[in-house]
Design brief:
The complex is a heterodimer of chains A (345) and B (76).
Chain A: E1 2-12, E2 16-19, H1 20-26, H2 32-39, E3 43-46, H3 53-66, E4 77-81, H4 92-100, E5 107-111, H5 117-130, E6 137-143, H6 154-157, E7 163-173, E8 179-186, E9 194-196, E10 213-214, E11 220-221, E12 226-228, H7 230-252, E13 261-264, H8 269-279, H9 300-310, E14 319-326, E15 330-337, E16 343-344
Helix pairs in contact in A: 1-2, 3-4, 7-8
Chain B: H1 3-13, H2 34-48, H3 54-59, H4 63-74
Helix pairs in contact in B: 1-2
Classes of the chains: A alpha/beta (345), B mainly alpha (76).
């Protein structure tokens, strides 16, 4: 049977490094060690002033092509996941099609999703491939959240980093699913807890939306900046992630011990450790990959996947559970199996 | 985490001696560092297996009210 599979993954981190030491110099009551201890993040990468989601995505995809996984002209469909697009219009995927030299007969769309975006992209790519619409799908996740972040808001500046990842999905003959099953979840009641309020059509940019206000925690932001209610997001995560994991196991006819490796959205280490303990997942089967890049939104899972393939943690034939959760609220979980010849980039 | 360790955490947040901790011990969650709030949420989840409403947490004025909030979350 024709099945979609993850053939190769490659990521790109922008050059500028923002270290805990630099942050500690700006926030004197948060020493560098405390930031590391509470977040699991030592440094994060920041896109340059002229560097946008398309640029990061192009670099990641070029790295993937350079690995020999496939040629640009073999891509039938480009899925580009971002919440920080270059423009309102045109679609970032159209810019990327041109920059990468993909065929003009290639499909290309953006989709706006955050921390669950990679798993959503897998479901879209799998559907395109297994329905015969496309043979090769390039899934690119790319974010420059740093452009939304107020420098005086340590609650988000310590957490988020910019990055992109490119994932090649192609076909395989297999009796079993190599991507899937899936579990999805949505609860728009949480929209206000992780949001950039101004800049869209509902609240266009004005002098008022640019006015910066200090919150009770001493963080400054305007309506044009990223706002995150950390405690509410944590609450949401503790409620939905274990339930989604258990539902996925049921759907796949699996027990927790049947899964070789778990890659959750790398939100922050404190949250991940609580989820791991709550679910009873052994430490050596649980990915923690954020110390040098922070929370890169939709790219955390493919970055961890790329590194797990490269360091041998995930070998051919192994199964992995991928779980994304956050802004929306939106969450998505999927099983995947590492193909025999997964390219390491 | 044990219940005793949880009590120590609450005492620390209330800036109170553990021995002096009582239902009447005042707390001001609205002024806690967000990291401390995350710590408390994790501890409540671990010890009592429940999540609490953050808006209601911010309204708690003493340890007794926090305890009642946890009790409410635990109720079937």
């Amino acid at each position: 049977m024709r099945k979609a599979q993850i053939r190769a993954v490659a990521s790109y981190l922008p050059a500028e490094i923002l270290s805990n030491e630099q942050l500690a110099a700006e926030y004197p009551d948060w020493p560098a060690e405390k930031i590391l201890e509470k977040t699991g993040i030592a440094s994060r990468r920041i896109a340059g002033a002229e560097e946008c989601a398309s640029d990061l995505g192009v670099f990641a995809a070029q790295k993937l092509f350079a690995s020999g996984a496939c040629r640009p002209d073999q891509i039938d469909y480009l899925l580009f996941c971002t919440q920080s697009p270059d423009y309102f219009l045109p679609t970032t995927a159209c810019l990327v099609q041109d920059r990468l030299g993909l065929r003009t007969s290639c499909g290309a769309i953006d989709f706006n999703q955050g921390c669950s975006g990679f798993v959503y992209g897998l479901s879209l790519g799998k559907s395109l491939i297994e329905s015969g619409v496309a043979d090769r799908v390039l899934l690119v996740t790319s974010e420059t959240y740093s452009k939304f972040i107020n420098p005086r808001d340590r609650s988000v500046r310590t957490i988020f980093g910019d990055a992109a990842a490119a994932t090649l999905l192609d076909t395989s003959e297999s009796q079993q699913d190599l991507i899937g099953p899936f579990v999805f979840g949505t609860d728009g009641r949480g929209a206000e807890n992780l949001i950039v309020r101004a800049g869209g059509m509902r609240r266009p940019l004005t002098a008022a939306t640019a006015a910066e206000v200090e919150d009770k925690g001493g963080n400054w932001r305007s309506e044009q900046n990223l706002y995150m209610n950390g405690p509410e997001i944590f609450n949401f995560t503790l409620k939905v992630v274990p339930a989604a994991v258990n539902e996925l196991l049921t759907r796949g006819g699996l027990k927790l011990g049947d899964v070789d490796y778990f890659i959750f959205h790398q939100a922050n280490q404190f949250m991940l450790e609580r989820l791991r303990a709550k679910l009873g997942i052994p430490e050596d089967k649980f990915s923690i990959e954020m110390e040098d890049c922070g929370n890169t939104v939709s790219s955390t899972i493919p970055i961890a996947l790329e590194r797990s393939l490269a360091n041998g943690q995930l070998r051919s034939g192994a199964s992995a559970m991928l779980v994304g959760f956050g802004v929306g609220y939106s969450w998505a979980a999927a099983m995947m199996r590492v193909p025999q010849a997964a390219a390491r980039t | 985490m044990t219940v005793d360790a949880f009590r120590s955490k609450v005492a620390s947040l209330a800036k109170s001696d553990l021995d002096a901790l009582s239902d009447a011990t005042p707390i001001v969650p609205d002024e806690w560092d967000s990291v401390d709030v995350l710590d408390l949420i994790a501890a409540i989840d671990e010890v009592f297996g429940v999540t609490i409403n953050i808006t209601e947490l911010n309204r708690c004025q003493n340890v007794g009210e926090l305890q009642a909030l946890i009790g409410k979350a635990s109720a079937p």
